[in-house]
Design goal:
Blueprint lengths: L3 E7 L10 H13 L2 E10 L9 E6 L2 E9 H20 L10 H18 L8 E5 L6 H7 L5 E5 L7 H4 L5 H8 L4 E4 L2 H15 L2 E2 L4 E4 L2 E7 L6 H9 L1 H13 L4 E8 L6 H14 L7 E8 L6 H21 L7 E4 L8 H7 L2 E4 L8 H9 L7 E5 L12 E3 L4 H13 L2 H17 L2 H15 L2
Parallel strand pairs: 1-2, 1-5, 2-4, 5-6, 6-7, 7-10, 11-12, 11-14, 12-13, 14-15, 15-16
Antiparallel strand pairs: 3-4, 8-9, 9-10
């Protein structure tokens, strides 16, 4: 059996429950093959030289974990710079927030070259390489240049932007050519696949070899959608565990006279959190029967607080929440409860289960697994309603949710009201259909489907 090699910006010990469903799913495959997981250690060597990093190798059961340190210059240009100040905003359609500093792309290429040099001696001839996410798009091309001929697949966890937005990136053709070094490129949604194929048609005169494969820039690659799922059984166990049940019960007692609306996100400009507060204000204005009875709980965990855009977002959000509470609040009712800190993973299912409405309303998202977690956490006898942005990748699968446009506060308010008023029988029917699809296309399906397609693409 060929050994699986997973390469990602950060790695996790698959033996630890805190690693999450993705690490557990990858860990299953890695354990079967005695696999290797390679990535950045998370450590910054203040005295290190650019393009050089100390590597550490250790065993986690049958899995080998190999990590590389980054020096400060490489971290600031590769990670903070090109990955998170160019690719993240552009791929989420926020050209206004992108910082096209020429140093950043040089650092991004330098670190990917270093990773390739460090990884190459660890590889075996029959390894299968699975490379993850926007930090490492050119890694396969660097490995190919060094003579690597192993099968290589890539999965992009964030959205693929339309061609005109992609074309705003300086040297965008180099970036997109890098995808052609893979045997298989996996994307989150059919919309993402369409954007990829349109780009290579427009810029690379691509030919469609068949329904999956395209030929462009002198190479052929298979491109398919593999919508990532969650570990349904694991999250179900968390939902029924004492910590989650205690959280749910506590919330229901605390808010016994209220209907809870819940949003759980990282504090990121892609999540549409201020738009959600504006829609809630609109709900209270248009449907005054919700005053005193509906409470919006928003948990926005810290995210890149050292970046100006995130500091501005936090300030805007705190102002909006204060305005709603000041204009509509009563002595015994606060309309919005805003929490800017991490909530323990084991508590999240309880929060989801206590909420009559789950608000997952990003402006753009690759998938958004919180939407799926909210559905799984519900009591099937009395489930809540998922209100989901049509700009989340999950919207392609979760069609029984109430789909909304987060840029339209009036429309969102109407949908939230519909969710609050939805009859039990309709809630149950929608929940059953959502659960069936989430269970069928869980994280284990995602991993198996991708690896099977990689085998077929490189056969």
């Amino acid at each position: 059996m060929s050994r699986l090699v997973v390469i990602s910006n950060r790695i996790a010990d698959p033996r630890k429950p805190a690693a999450g469903g993705l690490a557990v799913a990858l860990g299953d495959a890695l354990n079967k093959t005695g696999g290797l997981w390679f990535g950045w250690s998370g450590n910054i060597a203040e005295e290190g030289s650019p393009g050089e990093g100390e590597m550490h190798v250790r065993q986690a059961g049958t899995v080998t974990l190999a990590t590389v340190n980054l020096c400060r210059e490489d971290h600031d240009t590769y990670y903070h710079g090109y990955s998170n100040s160019v690719l993240w905003p552009v791929f989420h359609y926020r050209l206004d927030l992108a910082d096209f500093n020429a140093r950043y792309i040089a650092g991004y290429r330098r670190v990917n070259q270093m990773f390739a040099r460090k990884l190459l001696p660890l590889l075996r001839d029959d390894d299968i390489l699975w490379i993850h996410d926007y930090h490492l798009i050119p890694l396969a091309a660097e490995l190919r240049t060094m003579g690597c001929r192993q099968r290589m697949g890539f999965f992009l966890h964030i959205p693929m932007p339309p061609p005109l937005i992609m074309a705003a990136i300086p040297q965008h053709e180099w970036l997109m050519r890098s995808f052609m070094a893979y045997d298989l490129v996996g994307l989150q949604s059919e919309a993402d696949v369409s954007h990829f194929k349109r780009y290579v048609r427009n810029e690379g005169s691509a030919e469609e070899v068949d329904s999956t494969r395209v030929r462009a820039f002198g190479a052929t690659v298979a491109v398919k959608a593999f919508p990532i799922g969650i570990d349904v059984d694991e999250f179900s166990r968390l939902t029924l565990a004492p910590e989650a049940m205690e959280t749910c019960q506590g919330m229901r007692e605390e808010y016994s006279r209220r209907r809870l609306l819940m949003g759980i996100d990282r504090l990121d400009y892609s999540k549409g959190i201020p738009h959600r507060v504006r829609a809630f204000r609109e709900l209270l204005d248009r449907y005054p029967e919700n005053r005193g009875s509906a409470t919006l709980i928003m948990i926005a965990s810290p995210s890149r607080d050292d970046v100006n855009a995130y500091g501005d977002l936090r300030q805007e959000l705190e102002g909006l929440c204060g305005s709603v509470n000041g204009d509509y609040g009563e002595l015994d009712w606060m309309p919005v409860r805003y929490i800017h800190r991490m909530v323990a993973r084991k508590r999240v299912p309880g929060l989801c289960r206590a909420a009559a409405v789950g608000l997952v309303t990003p402006l753009r998202d690759g998938m958004n697994l919180v939407a799926k977690e909210y559905v799984v956490a519900q009591d099937p006898e009395d489930p809540g309603v998922l209100v989901l942005s049509r700009f989340a990748g999950a919207a392609e699968q979760l069609k029984e949710a109430l789909l909304v446009n987060p840029y339209d506060p009036e429309g969102m308010a109407n949908c939230i009201q519909q969710a609050l008023q939805m009859p039990l029988e309709e809630r149950q029917q929608r929940h059953q259909k959502l659960m069936a699809r989430i269970r069928e296309f869980d994280v284990h399906w995602w991993r198996k489907a991708f690896l099977q397609a990689l085998n077929e693409a490189s056969a």
